[in-house]
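Key result, reporting period 2: structure in, sequence out.
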């Protein structure tokens, strides 16, 4: 039987961005076992939905989680525990 989870890829990416503010897309992809391309698409979706913002600073594009948006986070079996999404209020 295939493993599954309640946390979507979008939710998992958001949780990592909030916890590790300067994490790179390639590191998110590695941690979540996703492709870098899909992580970049998810980040674009999160920016479009105003869950995160991206600032251009030289060669680095820091991504910040937006406080006050409703989210739910939880660790998954076999993956690192991300803890609560600090700066993002739960609904």
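The corresponding designed sequence is given below.
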């Amino acid at each position: 039987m295939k493993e599954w989870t309640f946390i979507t890829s979008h939710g998992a990416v958001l949780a990592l961005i909030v916890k590790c503010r300067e994490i790179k897309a390639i590191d998110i992809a590695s941690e979540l076992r996703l492709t870098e391309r899909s992580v970049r698409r998810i980040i674009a979706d999160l920016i479009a939905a105003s869950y995160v913002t991206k600032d251009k600073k030289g060669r680095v594009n820091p991504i910040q989680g937006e406080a006050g948006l409703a989210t739910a986070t939880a660790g998954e079996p076999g993956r690192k525990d991300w803890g609560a999404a600090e700066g993002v209020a739960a609904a």
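The helical segments are 9-19, 25-32, 36-48. The chain has one domain: 1-91. This case is discussed further under Risks and Mitigation.
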